[in-house]
Design brief:
Helix content is 24%, strand content 0%. The protein has 98 residues and is mainly alpha-helical. The chain has one domain.
Length: 98
């Protein structure tokens, strides 16, 4: 996002697209192209092990799905443009009281 994408301060802040995307996530088991890596042996993630260890992949996806059920909804704060250069003669500066 560039400063040109930030709405003027007097405009209502838009709903975060990230929040809407988080609500629309499918169950993890329906996601295609999930990859599995052994990070200690393959830190550059060059060898996908998901076909060799489908039971391990399913176990991890099941655990992630259980976590997702109890996780707090992500919070995306509203955009505050008060410190943006467009509002301050081209300078980034603090705008909140300490």
């Amino acid at each position: 996002m560039s400063p040109a994408d930030i709405p003027p301060r007097d405009d209502p802040c838009p709903v975060s697209p990230h929040k809407e995307a988080a609500k629309a996530l499918p169950p993890l088991q329906e996601i295609q192209n999930v990859r599995l890596y052994h990070l200690e042996q393959d830190p550059c993630e060059t060898t996908d092990l998901s076909a060799l260890f489908p039971h391990q992949l399913k176990r991890l996806l099941d655990r992630m799905e259980e976590h997702r059920k109890t996780a707090a909804e992500p919070w995306f704060p509203l955009v505050d443009t008060a410190g943006c250069p467009e509002q301050n003669n081209g300078l980034w500066k603090p705008w909140m009281d300490p």
